[in-house]
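Figure 2 data, in text form.
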Amino acid sequence: MADPTEHLLTAATAPSYGRAIRDGVEHVARHLVEAGAPTTGPDVERLAKRVADVDLDAPVDDVRSALDELSSLYLDDAVWFHHPRYVAHLNCPVVIPALLAEVVVSAVNSSLDTWDQSAGGTLVERRLVDWTAARLGLGADADGVFTTGGTASNLQALLLARGETVAATRAPLSRLRVLASADAHFSVEKAADVLGLGREAVVRVPVDRHHRMEPVALERELLRCLADGAVPMAVVATAGTTDFGVIDPLAEIAATCARHRVWLHVDAAFGGGLLASRRRRHLLDGIERADSVTVDFHKTFFQPVSSSAVLVRDGRTLRHVTMHAEYLNPRTAVVPNQVDKSMQTTRRFDALKLWLTLRLMGADAVGELFDAAIDAAHTLYDALADDPDLEMAAAPELSTLVLRYRPAEMPVGVADELNPRIRRALFERGDAVVAGTKVDGHSWLKLTLLNAATTHAQLLEVVELVRATGKELGAQLEEAC
């Protein structure tokens, strides 16, 4: 039996580590170059059998054999976000500096909970928290911490809001309410559930015809809560809704929250990339009045998953997640410990990815990537606005387009049945990956544009695939009827 310590990363095994990393990078690079489609439309049963047939108790002999096996199980059928015909979810192609950081992060394996596990990593994360808070305009007392994603950031923000509200009002959890727009992310309800409030504690505020939260409706719902004896715990505004990419009227919402002394959380998981934009930063005006903000760097800062942060205007509110353990972060500790601010204990040094991105590219370049994606969405919308075969749900604000195949003579019910079929067919054939959603109970397709390298002509190719597939499946649907 081989010596298992040969697989540990040590000074002695550094040469073999270097060879393995080079082999892996070259292997993935070949797949990136050779990916002729965003997906192969893999069959679940076929792939499941292939994975199940692997004998995990019989390891392969070398790195290249393992990589070849990995291709058959994963890479050959991976969904490639860098491909121009991937326009589905909020998944971004990633920047190379961040991938360089991933190599460092995984090899050193720092844990960003305490100083004696990360040292300089702690300071890098704190500096990036300060940088992000300054871009948000949260003020000198701001603070925050990196998290695994928008759902985790939203959860922590609402946990802090709960702590502040209960401390101020002594209200039982059953009386607490969270107000969010009808288009806010589902993680708001999930957080309410986890926090012991129940999903029914989330009050959905109507949106206007542009899908933005209505400030008048928010005022009305806040007054209704108070009249019913409930206690508004937080208002969640969204800067970049998942479907439409719209930004709620942050300044007006902030003024309403200030009048009612209610915690304002802004979910900017999508729109946070505007912090780096030289042309569109003004779209976030009012966010500086938030009590907490979610920013997902692994969306519009083009970072690999996972990289998110929750920022707070008053760093003292982070005390609601602080716990002390003698073996980890005793109260007598005099060194900086990020675990004091986090809901997690062990935590990757994900901040390094953003650090190297900023050091090698600069924030302006990151902003240009997001601006280019937004420009592409606006240009595509203009090109399709009068298309007789396509119906557009709304003009884009950021980089999403909600549309569907529906020629003028097609009944709504037929379009509702047809468009999900179009989406499935495109994926199963490996032609394109588009998303689906529902608006007012009706089925639509959604194009999410985050690849600045994709051309207008390539996006029109995706649209033509939607049109051609719609005509084909529509004819089949008519025959079946």
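Caption note: The first strand starts at residue 86 and ends at 87.
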